[in-house]
Amino acid sequence: MPVRPVYSRAPPYRWLIEVNHRDEKQVIGVGQAQLWSAESVERQPAFAVANYSMLLLAAMNAFGPDELDVLPLPKWEDRRNGSRRSTQRLIQILRHEIRGFALEEVTRTDRPTDFVTSVLPVAKCPEVPVAPVPPIAYVRSG
User: I need a surface site. Which of 7, 10, 58, 62 has the fewest CB within 10 A?
Assistant: First the structure.
């Protein structure tokens, strides 16, 4: 059995590699952070790529290799079979889930809240009847 060279497997994946590089630069922003520390400048690209990789792995674990839509697609978006889920779409789904968790926490009723629930009966200060002081009392003598 002849051994195939490694580069013969690359052409089918070349497009995905190009898409990954484009997403890392334009969507994730690798190399675009405004940093002051020299260590941060060195570490930021690796950190951004690691986050991008975690996003792709989480999507693979959550949805599998098949194209399943959690949120409905817009009517203008192409619904081709076999196309890979875009990074923009994954970020949109992630934001949707984060907002959903935040709303669940806000609307939970099984725990006490830190918010004040008592409502004051009157919104304005009550008027106190005070006898008017004649202006002459404020005039300095002498």
Answer: 7
